[in-house]
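Anyone opening a protein record will find just a pair of labelled lines. A complete record is shown below as an example.
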Amino acid sequence: MNVRFLPTIFFIGLLFFVNNSFAQVSGLADYKIFLDPGHAQKENMGLYNYSEAEKVLRVAHELKDLFESQTDIEAVHLSRLTDADQISLSERTDLANSLGVDFYYSIHSDAGGSTANSTLTMYGGWRKNGSTVEKSPVGGKAFGDLLNVDLSGAMRIANRGNYADRVYYQGEIYHHDNQWPYLHVNRTTNMASLLSEGGFHTNPTQQQRNMNAKWKKLEAMSAFRSFLKYKGIEPPAIGVVTGIITDEDNGLPVNGVVVTIGEKHDTTDTYQSLFKNYSTKDGQLRNGFYWIDNLTPGAEVEVIFSSEDYLPKTVSLTLATDSAGWTKDNLSFLDVSLTSNKPPLVESVTAENGLGRVIPGMDPISITFNRTMNKESVEQAISVSPEVPISFNWKDDATIMINTDSLAFNANYTFTIADSTAKNDVTGQFLDGDNDGVEGGAYQFDITTSTEDITAPQLLTYWPNDTTASAEIRPVIRMVYDEEIADESVASNIVSVQRISDGRYAYGKVGHVVVNGQSVLHFFTTQDLVNRETYRVSIKAGLKDVNGNATEAFSFTFTVKEEEITAKTIIDDFNAGVTGWWQPQASGSTSGIITEVTSSGADTEETVLSVGSTGSMKLNYGWDVEASGQYIREYLPSTADQNNNRFGIDDVLQMFVMGDGSGNQFRFMIKDGDSKYEASQWYTLDWKGWKLVSWNLSDDPVYAWVNGDGVLNGDNFLVDGIHLRYADGAVAQGTLWFDDLRFVTRSAYTPPTDVELVADDEMISMFPNPARSKVRIETKENIRSVSFYNLSGQLTKQLQPDSREVEIKLNEIEPGLYLVKIETTKGISTKKLNVVK
């Protein structure tokens, strides 16, 4: 054990010895329990910069207080006392073993997607010859069977069950190879033990409740009562009224409500009392949770709810009482909704392209109120100047959509919501249009419509092209347009790819996707192209935007220049879904996100057809631009099946990424042979559509992360995940797709055995270029043939000079760009020649 922890351990051992002769419950006089609040300091950061470690430490203190004040327990020990303590796993379990405690209880909360929320308990155990075996001494399973049900009932969330830990992590197979507990706290402790996960600190609703001090008391009370039942002791009676207070109009929890029962009262959290520590904006966080205890079980009480902003409410209640039942059977849950006493306000007015560029007939105007509105009164209240007929649709009871079909292009309009007409549907209060706190006052906003679209879609970028060769022998050809193209105009043969040298067409499939308002056409080549050959991509006329404007035909050329791939190993093709990968919120490294819009999952719509893909990983992200350190770690554990595919320094890590042009950045993260975290460079997402991103591990830069040193050492590398970060000025929300994560081994290009490729710059000269009447070619080997092809792939001139030098007249060749194929005794080379007259 590290010497620097000895004073702390001695202090803990002394501080938490209790011999309570005034306890209400007996039966634990010779019993010692060790409470281990998981992690330390601010580890495992949850939403809103409130960590799992901070929360569970306070649950442990509440549980300790319950044991000491209400039982005759001999001793309660804690593994750590404060947020400053940093205690390793081995130091925790070594301390418990040295103290000779009777039970080890490790307290945690869980992480996952923004909608996941449930309880889970795990005792030490495994499967042996078809049966589940619990570690000795037993007791963790019995306590877990009670706690998992009780805790989910008290928290009013789902439960995933009580598992032997190795079964939970490795499955309920017939026989596990390792016949010992999976978790350290179960494996290395000499007493009965259990680990619990009390809800998810990555769930927005749960995490806002986790911040409340009395919520942690609720969790502690569930563990306390479950443990007494486990020991065969009837828990003491409790009298508690608790619940969640919400707004009747919008269903959101309400801050600052005073709850009174006789002389006792509680106030729901507010920005000033709590949430200012975790947010910068009043009203961003809310839980509406209240808790009043030390009441008489079975008594009849009146519960009064009061707030400056809501109508008062009083509810009569008989307190629950069932001391032998679950904790939920002894908590008097009273959830109430309150009615606002404030007149309704306009919360926002929006249009898809902004109020300064509303496209008539395409962009509805959305008006959102902060309260449920009387729909008929709102429609009667809205007028527009200059006057045109308008119609409406309702998105929900608080959001009206104004249709813009009747608006003219390139025009200005003023919309007015009249005084004393639009009213709240619950209380009948009129709109506070001028936001002065009282009913009445017209609300106005101005819009400007766009100019009429009479221009066909414009091709902005395409890849590969004349200046950027394809480094892939089976490329995904990408064409990005400046606006959305109507799906029905994208025919299956709208794009073709033809080899210049012989006019042969390449097989492939056309795909269309809209990325941030711009259409991307893909041509997925489904056969290997010929290396060192030039191809022409032709796009037929007739692509139409949503207004019917049609494109003209267009073509461009590119050359394939791929280094030879000698081996290719798939790490994850995502065809079977997204398994093993964690949700972004599950990693403690993820921060500064809008959790409700951030998630990862399987997708079958957007895939790379060139590799026959039927699935991809879809990552939705949303940055909280007001937060600091916006970062996503999309984590793949080293134990995941995908990481059975190991790679090394001679390989190239690759993955197809559908960029969104957002300007955000992503990178690969791996663990090298020394288990150090090493990263690729940051790749800026400045493209739209599918692109193969490659990290050449032997040549490209390497960057350290966490314990890394910026050097790739050893062998048997594995993928740790994908990292994403926000770049200043980049798009705050978007979606990315990832497909065909793999590594390949490359070698220098080896030409076909029947002809060796000539190095252009060193062995062949062609001049002048541009040329008018003649062109001269000089080589170090005899020239067998010279062939001229136009960009349509037609052979326009050919000769066999059988010499090292030749001068070719161009009288019969029309002006334009030509590909000149030169075959010598050493090989073939293709050059571009610009003929001018």
Remarks:
- Residues 3-230 form a domain with the Aminopeptidase fold (CATH 3.40.630.40).
